Amino acid sequence: MTETPKAVYARLVAEGEVRPDPEQQRVLAHFERLYHELADYPEVAGRAGGLSIKSWRLANFFRWTGGDKKAPKGIYIYGGVGRGKSMLMDLFYELAPVAHKKRVHFHEFMLDIHARLKEWRGLSAKERTEKGGRASEDDPIPPVARQIALEATLLCFDEMQVTDIADAMVLGRLYRELLERGVVIVATSNRVPDDLYKGGLNRQLFLPFIEMIKAQFEVVPLDGPTDYRYDRLKGVDTYYSPVDDEATAKLSEAFFRLTDRNVEDRDKVPSDELTVQGRKLHVPKAARGVAVFSFKRLCANALGAADYLAIARAYHTVILVAIPQLGPDKRNEAKRFVTLIDALYEHGVKLLCSAAVPPDQLYESGDGHFEFDRTVSRLMEMQSKDYLTRGHGKEDA
User: Phi, psi (5° rounding) for residue 225?
Assistant: First the structure.
């Protein structure tokens, strides 16, 4: 057995990589419990190659009868921004003694679910049978839950929030199906369960899901006094002008500070990829919820609101390099930049950037100047402490 979450956390503290935090250590006890329960938890046989529906039923019959252990209880961690929820979940995920597991941003997971539901509805009876379902199974949620369960015994969701009625209507039944199939779920959120989808359309239909979370999960608060994400930004400027070697060095230093990486490892920073409406969006550098882009990549190419929303939902911090001075000759780039800033602002994304000139000089005159005023205002506000301590994500509906 590998090191346990508590052991790794203690080592990171001893090495100075993590600051000791009593609230984090309290939450860690819940992950320690789940770690040990998963160590002796059976996974469905044949996941890698898939199962026929008959084999699936047989595997589950023997798994859930004859004295097999009950599925471990999942964990729902909630609390303010920057308290270490994602860090602790990532630590647990890496160590979890489960062969088939998935860690995903909650919004990306729901996009995938809706795509699967749509695909199932469009299948013929023969195709449904070939995919392990029943020809007459018109309700897509059970077969999609089966697909997910065959792929992952452990699901870890980061930043769970519900702002969309389509998500709200699917979640309750989907979670119930997953839990009945023995999937173990861990989720982080900025919101206590009772505040999910607060004020949303037809929220009364969503309330049973909230009760299920409270009954089926360990609901654990993590709201210590220190906002570690903001703490890392203290003393760091978020807007650098002009674009020069010093600005580039400062942004690079900020990236490594925010992601707890060593500057010496600059050549080892991974890239990432987002799926947007069936397309792949390349992210040049990304780690620990921080993404790096050039202005040219995001605003000189034919990207749109869907791309910027995907970025805003996936990353709590964006570093944008080399914003030029804009004007009527760069009207298309300016329009995309406005849309990008709107998406980042609405989702509370922290923006660090280098630009040719200060915000109020980015688009000084000419056609389009008036429409740019709101963007200037938002760029200024995004440098404030109030904004930098704001949680990531849109407010629940």
Answer: -75, -15
- Strands of 350-355's sheet, edge to edge? 239-240, 350-355, 317-323, 290-294, 285-287
Residue 394 lies in a domain: no
Q: Domain holding 103: CATH number?
A: 3.40.50.300
pLDDT tens column, 171-224 = 999 999 999 999 999 999 988 999 999 888 889 989 999 999 999 999 999 987
This prediction has a pTM of 0.68
Q: Is 393 among the domain residues?
A: no
Crossing angle of helices 106-121 and 165-180, rounded to 10°: 80
On the 0-12 / 13-18 / 19+ scale of CB atoms within 10 A, 124 is: exposed
Question: Judging by beta carbons within 10 Å of its beta carbon (0-12, 13-18, 19+), is residue 15 exposed, middle or buried?
Answer: exposed
Assess if residue 245 is contained within a domain.
Answer: yes
Parallel, antiparallel, or unpaired for β 74-78 and 217-221? parallel
281 and 217 within one domain: no
Opening angle at CA 395, ends 148 and 78, nearest 5: 60
**Closest-CA residue to 87 (of 300, 184, 229):** 229
* Chain CA centroid to CA 65, Å: 35
**Distance in angstroms (rounded) separating the CA atoms of residues 378 and 359:** 9
Torsion over CA of 219, 224, 230 and 234, rounded to 10 degrees? Answer: -170
- Choosing from 193, 221, 249, the residue where a domain stops is 221
> Are residues 241 and 141 part of one domain?
no
